[in-house]
Amino acid sequence: MISIKELDQQAQQIVRQAGQNAFEKMGEDYQVDIKTNYTDLVTTIDRENEQLINNQLRKIDPDSQILSEEGFGDRQITNMQGHVWIVDPIDGTMNFVKQHNNFAVMLALYVDGSPVLGYILDVINGRLYHGRRGDGVYVNDKKINQPANLGLRESLLAMNRTLTLSGNPSLKEIAQEAIGLRMYGSAGIEMIDVITGQLGAYISNLKPWDLAAGRMLAEELGLVVKSIDGRSINVLSSNLVLVATRQVSRDIRQIIN
Ligand code: 2AM
Ligand code: CA
User: Fold this and answer.
1) What average pLDDT does this structure show over 79-101?
2) Are 225 and 218 in contact (CB under 8 A)?
3) Rounded to whole angstroms, how far apart are CA atoms 204 and 182?
4) Looking at ligand 1, which residue's alpha carbon is closest to its atom 5?
């Protein structure tokens, strides 16, 4: 069987190919469809990318399961045994369509439920954030240092639109306590900014493919990835997730409790 190190090399190529495909097609005509409502989009490029990624994963790791957003993966994934690849072919599809910026390709490998490989490609900046468990996190070829353990009052916080508008008093207090509030519209780009220390925290409702890669990279750098009330998260379900420095996580816990 192919080693994790070899899978890592191949997966980097696959993510870069999908990024290149999105970059090339970005300015062309493509179809945009509505998923659950008019704010939730999918394009033919999302679907193309997912097929490109999944077909290659099936070649390099044929016994694995694939959990992916647009329906080309395995229909039913009820357990995390063995190799499970988790795919977001374009994260931040709204930004892809509207901004031609601030979107990502994301991929992760979980082995028996634990994160082992993670990739977030910031397509427009050509930066691939990647990591293998125990080997640290890199941006392209450069190793990333652990971000400073700042508290909430010294940190920028990113929160998604639904939560920001929810009126939840605890979330409002958290947002007011932070030094500033940001909203990018791409979980991948927001998690990159926590990993690199540009944000102290990111709070959002995330599906498995929004979370899987960023969780791997963040945990490898000693950051906290938990449900907002401090419980551990189940990667197979939708979660209200906090990705943060240890100090911000403590500060938020104090506000919530
Ligand atoms: P997507 O573009 O891959 O769908 C924007 O708020 C961020 O949340 C994006 O990363 C987007 O990923 C994700 N997202 C959009 N709709 C979502 C939903 N209904 N549940 C969870 N995540 C969602
Ligand atoms: Ca997506």
Assistant:
1) 98
2) yes
3) 12
4) 185
Q: What's the CA-to-centroid distance between 20 and ligand 1, angstroms?
A: 22
Residue 111 reports pLDDT greater than 90: yes
From the CB of 190, is ligand 1 less than 6 Å away?
no
CA gap 100, 92 in Å, rounded: 10
Phi-psi sector, 8: left (phi>0), alpha (psi -120 to 50), beta? alpha
C-alpha 225, offset from chain centre = 12
Residues whose Cβ atom is located within 5 A of ion ligand 2: 69, 88, 91
Q: How high is the pLDDT of residue 1?
A: 82
pLDDT category, 230, cuts 50, 70, 90? confident
Average pLDDT over residues 181-196: 98
What is the C-alpha separation between 91 and 39, in angstroms, rounded?
A: 14
Chain-centre distance of CA 251, in angstroms?
23
| Cα 182–chain centre separation | 17
Task: Give residue 224's pLDDT band: very low, low, confident or very high (50, 70, 90).
Answer: very high
Structure tokens at 118: 């993670």
The number of the ligand 1 atom at minimal distance from the alpha carbon of 207 is 21
Mean pLDDT of 145-169: 97
Tell me what the pLDDT averaged over the chain comes to. Answer: 97
The CB of 239 under 6 Å from ligand 1? The reply is: no
Whether the model pTM is above 0.90: yes
189: Cβ below 6 Å to ligand 1?
Answer: no
Q: Is 197 in the pocket of ligand 1 (CB under 6 A)?
A: no
C-alpha atoms less than 13 angstroms from C-alpha of 225 in its C-beta half-sphere: 23
